Amino acid sequence: MKTPLLLDGVEVSNRIKADLAKRVTALNEKGITPSLATILVGEDPSSATYVRMKGNACHKLGMESKKIEMPTETTTEELLATIQQLNEDHTVHGILLQHPVPEQIDERAAFDAIAIEKDVDGVTTLGFAQNAFNFAQYPSCTPAAIMAILDHYDLPIEGKHAVVVGRSPILGKPVSMMLLNRNATVTICHSRTSELEAHVKQADIVVAAVGRPEFIKGEWIKPGAVVLDAGYNKGNVGDCDYDGCAANASAITPVPGGVGPVTISMLLKHTVDAAERLNP
Amino acid sequence: MKTPLLLDGVEVSNRIKADLAKRVTALNEKGITPSLATILVGEDPSSATYVRMKGNACHKLGMESKKIEMPTETTTEELLATIQQLNEDHTVHGILLQHPVPEQIDERAAFDAIAIEKDVDGVTTLGFAQNAFNFAQYPSCTPAAIMAILDHYDLPIEGKHAVVVGRSPILGKPVSMMLLNRNATVTICHSRTSELEAHVKQADIVVAAVGRPEFIKGEWIKPGAVVLDAGYNKGNVGDCDYDGCAANASAITPVPGGVGPVTISMLLKHTVDAAERLNP
User: Fold this and answer.
1) Is B121 an active-site residue?
2) pLDDT digit string (tens) for B224-246?
3) Residues A121, A204, A241, A273: which is the catalytic one?
4) For FRET with A200, which of A33, A41, A82, A261 sits at 20 to 30 Å CA-CA?
5) For the domain B140-260, what is the CATH code?
C-alpha cells in the first residue's frame, strides 16, 4: 500500500497569499486598501466563526474587512437594502453574504442583489453562468480552490473522468462546469443517484461535496484516483472516510488543511482582483 | 429484436400547438398578437431556412413574426443597437437571434443584449443559470424540447443515468442541468472524452448533441436505453446511426420528425408565455 500524495491546502494557500501580499502592497502605495464586506445575519455560531476567520485572513494580508451583523429577524428587504448600500460604497471591493441566512429571507434574491463586479464569493446566478461558460471573473470560491489544488500539484484534468458527488449551486454544479471546461468528462451524482458506489468507482477524480461525514468510503475509490474532499463536518471530518480513501488514492486532500484554507485564499484573491479592477 | 417506441416529435409538437392556439385566441381577444422578432445576420442559406420555418410556424398559429435581416458585414455595435430597439418595442414579445452570426460579431455580447424577459430562445448567460438553478422562464428550446418529449411519453428520468454527448451553451450544458434537476445522474461527454463508447454504453438515457452525422453507433446503446437525437446534419441525418441505435433502444427519436419540430414549438410556447407575462 503506497502512501498517497498529500494535497496540502495550507501550502497552496500560502503560495497564493504570498503573491497577494505583493499586490496588496502595490495597492496600498496607490492609497487603496482592498476591502471585503462580510454580512452575517443571525447568530449561527459556525457562521460567526467562518466570518471571523475570513476577517482575520483579510487583516493578516493588510486588507480591510468590514463586518456587518444583522439580527436574526432581518427581512429580505432590509438585507437587500444593506447589500445595495455596499454595492454603491466605493471603499468596498467585495461582498460576502454568509450562508445560510435565516429562513424568512429569500436567499437567492439576496445573493443576486450583489453587484456582479463585487461578487467575489461567486454566488450570483449570473456569476454561475459566466463560470459555466468559462468567462467568470469570480468563480465560486470552493470550486476555484479545488481547481487551484489540482493545478498546484500539476494533476491532469483533460480526458479524465471526474465524478462530483453533490449538486449545490455554489459547489457541485460550478465545480462540474469548471472540470468540464478543462476537458474532463464529468458525472454529477447526488442524493437520488442509484448505484452511487458504482459511479464513484469509475472516477479518476472524485470531488466530494455532500455535506455528510465520511460518506464516501475507501472501497469506492479506484486505485490511483485523485480525491478532493470539500466537506467539513462536525468533529473536523470531511465527506470522505480519509484513511479508507487514502489507501486507494494516488493523491488526496486532508480535512482540515485541504480544500478549506484554499477556499479562503480564493476569496482574498478575488477581493484583491476586484480592488485592482475597480481602481485601474 | 423488438421495435422501439418511436418518440414522435410531430405528435408532441401538435399537442403543444393545440394548447397554444387557444392561448393565442385568448390574447387576440384582448387585442394582443404574440410577436416573435427574428434577426438573421448574413446570407447563410440554412440559417435563412430555419428563420423562415420559425416565421411560418408563428403565422400558422395566428402569431406575428417580425423579420429583421442584416447584411453580412454588420458590426457588433449595429447588432446590439437593433436588439436594444427590439427590447424597447412593446409590440415584440420574444427575440430570436439566429445562430451562427458572422465571425466579426461578438455573439455572446449579442445574445446577452437580449432582455431576459424576451429571451424566448434561452440563449442569454443569465437565462442559462436560471435554468441550471431550476427557475428559468425560458430554458433553451432544444433542451426544453428533449424534456417535453420525455414527459409526453412518460419516460422516467429520476434515478436514471443520462449521458449527454456535447457541451454547447445552448444544448449540452443546459440539457445536462435540466436532467440533473429532474434527479437524473448525468455524465457530460465531449470531443475530448476518452472512451466515449464506454460511457454511452452505461446510459439509460442518451442525448446526442454533437453535430456530427451518425456519430453515435448502434452498438454503443445499452439494450433498453432511451435515445434522443438532437442532431440535424446534411442529408437529413441525425447524430445517431438510427437503424443501429433503434435495434437496441427501447425508445428513440427519429431525424427528421423528432427533437426538431418540438424545438420550434417550444420557441412558440415561450413567445406566447412572454406575450401573456408582458400583458398580464
Assistant:
1) yes
2) 999 999 999 988 899 999 999 99
3) A121
4) A261
5) 3.40.50.720
